[in-house]
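[Meeting: bench + compute handoff]

Bench side (C.D.) handed over the final construct sequence. Compute side (W.E.) agreed to return the predicted structure before the next meeting so the bench team could plan truncations. Sequence as handed over:
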Amino acid sequence: MNLQKIFSEITESLEILYQDREEILKLSRKIIRDCSIAIKNIHRKEFNKFQEKLNSIKIDHQSLVKLIDKNPGVFFKYLKTPEQEYTESIAFYSIINKKNIPTPLELRIDPLNFILGLADVIGELRRYALDNIRNSQFEDLNDILEGMDEIYTYLFTIDYPSAVTQDLRHKVDVARNIIEKTRGDISLAIQMDDLKRCFESNL
């Protein structure tokens, strides 16, 4: 029997898979961590730092996709979280700066991972709006709310079974509640600011 040769080849193949998986996990964790930092940069309006971090994320994402493409169908699941985070950071930056959001094709992101990440950006927009309210910056609040509404409207049109869209429906339901809370907070903040201005002008 030639079992020694067979198992030698199998072990060699599995060792390569193992090493690829370790590198994929390492890159995945780094992308997720860097996306978190990039989003914090946006909240702090540190846009130069955001761009620097984004450049690093793009390079790591290309390396991640290359490794996953090397093993078709084996490690695809490891793209889900880093690509959602990548989408969230890009979309958040684009909306805040009134730029077009790049397409999944342009970013080389799986379309489903893209829309799942897009659903998450609504929560970051709420945080950004609340920070603006606390800092008495009211000029962009309606634009932020409109951006949230537009994303939600398009996400709502994705009407497929959960076997296809995974947890998208749950994320859309959460997004709707976030938008309604934000709408109330923004309306109240603007009314209070108008009242304050009216009071001050009558002094």
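W.E. noted at the follow-up: The chain has a mean pLDDT of 93. C.D. will use this when planning the next construct.
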